[in-house]
Design a protein that fits this description.
Blueprint (H helix, E strand, L loop, with lengths): L5 H49 L2 H4 L12 H10 L2 H4 L16 E3 L5 E3 L19
Antiparallel strand pairs: 1-2
Length: 134
């Protein structure tokens, strides 16, 4: 809530008691309660207005996908660790090749053809340099 923890709220309440004094504190507490009630009424009104404007589509909305608690990093890591190892390693069982890399051929200025197959990498062969890419 606004980056304020419990101890900071207690400290703010104590400061309010000293600043406002015992005479004005009940009056301001009542005003704060009324402000909170008005904010809740406005939020419910906006929700009702949205429901009226969307009609039957309002019930079809998956509100859980907008819940920020689902993006908790601890939960994401926990689920990744619980995931079966076979599912995680399925991409590695394709023989060690990358399915995204095709059999593209690059022709340099000398007319030399270099394939994209990294298993045939030769350290003595010059590295392909693309002038247009840099």
């Amino acid at each position: 809530m606004f980056g304020i923890n419990g101890w900071e709220i207690v400290l703010l309440a104590l400061i309010a008691v000293f600043v406002l004094g015992p005479e004005r504190l009940p009056e301001y507490a009542q005003k704060l309660a009324q402000l909170i009630k008005k904010a809740r009424v406005m939020a419910e009104g906006a929700k009702g207005q949205l429901k009226d404007q969307l009609g039957p589509e309002y019930n079809d909305i998956n509100w859980r996908q907008y819940d920020p608690r689902q993006y908790d990093p601890r939960r994401i890591v926990r689920e990744a660790l619980i995931e079966p190892l076979e599912d995680a390693a399925s991409g590695l069982k394709s023989g060690g090749t990358n399915p995204d890399v095709g059999d593209s051929v690059v022709i340099d200025d000398d007319g030399v053809h270099y394939g994209a197959d990294l298993s045939k990498w030769d350290p003595l062969r010059p590295t392909v340099y693309d002038v247009d890419a840099t």
